[in-house]
Amino acid sequence: MDIIRPTSPTIRNYKALHTSKECENRGLFLLEGEHMVGEALREGWPLAGALITPQMQEKWRTPLEKAGVSCLVVSQEAMQGACQTVTPQGVCAMARLPEKRRFSDTAGRRTLVLDGLQDPGNVGTLIRSAEAAGFDGVICCGGAYPWAPKVVRATMGSILRVPVFRAGDTLAAVQALKDSGIALWAAAMHGENFFARVETPERLAIVIGNEARGVGAEVLAVSLVYSLPMRGKVESLNAAMAGTLMMY
């Protein structure tokens, strides 16, 4: 049995999915590791192919091929070339990007809006928290690409279940939500005490801002602005932690 080596064009195709440009061009994104590949199989997510190391053949080849996924056996060195993680687990897959659609097509009661978040870990954690808190969708306005490998890993599978959308302009996105009757809450250090609010609207969008600059001034101007009270000498919380608290 031939084992694919690191210089193979196949490995270059997987490595290309480390960039947002190639993900969009190919309509694919990368799933790394046993947990993410397993989540994709459980959700019935369409996969375009998979790589496994010889040590992982017995565990993964049968379930992948039963799902109609073509598997190729690669060396551990080749797997390291295909994956972004330093020590990959021996299985990865190319997944189909979801069909592009407007958020209004699936608008629900609860929406999370990310205004230019740059850190992939924060974006992925917030997508995961959105699922846990029962939110219906996440709109990513600029910032980290939501289907980048680091973001996908941080979601722990939630990106396969929570509708995620991209928008170029945060103000236009939130104004469209507001025009459809959705209340806007934005997180900022100078806002009202979040825990002293009187009531929670039936339909709500929470806006979490960029790690350095926060939510843009134009977005704050059309939103109710809340802050989480700080004790001690703490000035602010990590964006993912603050967003998670506000969603709950």
Number of strands: 10
End-to-end C-alpha gap: 52 Å
Q: Determine the structural class based on helices, strands and strand pairing.
A: alpha/beta
Strand content: 15-25%
Taking pLDDT < 50 over at least 5 consecutive residues as the criterion, the unreliable ranges are: none
> Could you describe the largest sheet, including whether it forms a barrel?
6 strands, parallel
Radius of gyration based on Cα positions: 20 Å
Could you describe the 3D structure shown?
- α6 (120-132) packs parallel to α7 and α6 packs parallel to α10.
- α4 links the parallel β2 and β3.
- The protein starts with 8 loop residues before the first helix and ends with a helix.
- The chain contains ten helices and ten strands.
- It is α/β, with parallel strands linked by helices and 248 residues long.
- The protein has a six-stranded parallel β-sheet. It has a four-stranded mixed β-sheet with strand order 1-4-2-3.
- It has helices spanning 9-16, 20-26, 33-43, 57-66, 76-82, 120-132, 149-155, 170-179, 217-221, 239-247, and strands spanning 28-32, 47-52, 71-73, 91-96, 110-115, 137-141, 164-167, 183-193, 204-209, 224-227.
Q: Keyphrases for this structure?
A:
248 residues; elongated; alpha/beta; 10 helices; four-stranded mixed beta sheet; six-stranded parallel beta sheet; single chain; 10 strands
Question: What's the gist of this structure?
Answer:
This protein has 248 residues and is α/β, with parallel strands linked by helices. The protein has 10 helices and 10 strands.
